[in-house]
Design goal:
The protein is mainly alpha-helical. Strands 1-2 form a two-stranded antiparallel ribbon. Helix 1 runs antiparallel to helix 2. The longest helix has about 30 residues. It is elongated, with a radius of gyration of 18 Å. About 10% of the residues have low confidence.
Length: about 160
């Protein structure tokens, strides 16, 4: 199963979420500039993106297939993470029934986990009250991803003819 998650998709979700966090605050006009992530914050978000990618690779390491290209190998000899990668790319070794049944859920769960991971780091800086909420949400998504990847169908009785 090939997984590609565009960085811009996750950044868009992070920016929407931070705008919501700022808007629900008791003084939204004062907090918006402080809390909401904007295009000016892309450099910091890029660092958080790299951390989220490393976290995702760590969660997927048991199912990752070796990358055929060594171009993206980091200084530490990481899986396939470039210092300037725009997208998250991974090839997983999954049984066909898991890929067919749970493939879309695996992708959306991974996207949500990466979004929450970035939000945890961002809110740790701008809104420490929300940091624990997003950290717990990241852990929940990580556990859901592990359950999806470990899915095994129940045996069904086969009628005898």
């Amino acid at each position: 199963m090939n997984i590609t998650i565009p960085r811009d998709l996750i950044f868009h979700r992070v920016k929407m979420s931070t705008a919501y966090i700022a808007a629900r605050n008791s003084a939204p006009t004062e907090c918006y500039d402080r809390i909401a992530a904007t295009n000016a914050d892309d450099e910091m978000l890029q660092h958080f993106w790299q951390d989220a990618c490393e976290e995702a690779y760590a969660c997927l390491r048991s199912w990752l297939l070796p990358s055929p290209s060594k171009d993206f190998e980091g200084e530490s000899g990481g899986d396939s993470l470039s210092a300037y990668s725009l997208d998250f790319n991974a090839t997983l070794s999954l049984p066909p029934y898991v890929e067919n049944i749970k493939g879309p859920s695996i992708l959306t769960t991974l996207q949500a986990m990466m979004t929450c991971s970035i939000l945890t780091r961002w809110t740790g800086i701008v809104d420490p009250d929300s940091e624990n909420r997003y950290a717990a949400e990241t852990v929940r998504w990580r556990h859901r991803l592990a359950r999806l990847l470990s899915f095994r169908p129940h045996p069904r009785p086969v009628p005898l003819i």
